[in-house]
Amino acid sequence: MAETAKNPVVHMSTSKGDIRIELDAEKAPISTKNFLDYATAGHYDGLIFHRVIPGFMIQGGGFDASMSQKKTGAPIKNEAGNGLKNVNGSIAMARTNVVDSATAQFFINVKDNDFLNHKSTSSEGYGYAVFGQVIAGMDVVQAIEQVKTANRGMHQDVPVDAVVINSVKVEP
User: Fold this and answer.
1) 52-89 residues labelled b (16+ CB within 10 A) or e (exposed)
2) Shortest CA distance to 109 belongs to which of 82, 130, 86?
3) Which of 37, 101, 125, 147 gives 96 a disulfide partner, CB atoms 3.0 to 4.6 angstroms apart?
């Protein structure tokens, strides 16, 4: 019998500590490849968690500490219908109101957010594509969740003291 491929695990080093995330390459192949491509290219290095909402989620992957948005590649297909749910500790692709608009930004759920799950193929019911789960470092995620935030121009819920993503590396 052929050995099944092991899911990739990434090590996210942040200014608050380390987070390990197992990606689901089987159920979310497009989102997993997309995230790994950005990680391997060093895209996330030096960016911040730019949106933190206690009791909801922490979001990163798009902005540096001066709130300058980093250039991204083309949007990917939304895989929200893959059966994975927006549960506590899951990582999902952030997007605009356009279903297939996700690029590099992601969020980590800090509670079960059922309302973000795929319900239908309509734009309102499509949901947010989960592509992995935190397997170590939820204490770090919770520490980030508790930072003081403020509004900065058009950006809301921005940490007052930047929470920096130092690097995202694929574990061997």
Assistant:
1) beeebbbbbbbbeeeeeebeeeebbebbbebebbbeeb
2) 86
3) 101
Token pair recorded at residue 151: 């509004």
List 49's β-bridge partners, or say none: 60
Record the tokens describing residue 107, joined without a space: 């969020």
Helix (H) or strand (E) holding 6: none
Query: To which residue do tokens 């930047």 refer?
Result: 162
Single-letter code of the amino acid located at 159 = P
> pLDDT tens, position by position, for the chain (172 residues)?
445 568 999 999 999 999 999 999 999 999 999 999 999 999 999 999 999 999 999 999 999 999 999 999 999 999 999 999 999 999 999 999 999 999 999 999 999 999 999 999 999 999 999 999 999 999 999 999 999 999 999 999 999 999 999 999 999 9
Determine contact, residues 102/95, Cβ cutoff 8 Å.
Answer: yes
Q: CA-CA distance, 110 to 91, in Å (whole number)?
A: 10
The Cα 59–Cα 158 span in angstroms is 10
Q: Which of 148, 128, 169, 154 is nearest to 63 (CA)?
A: 154
Q: Return d(Cα 75, Cα 103) in angstroms, integer.
A: 5
How many contiguous H segments (helices) and E segments (strands) does the chain have?
A: 2, 10
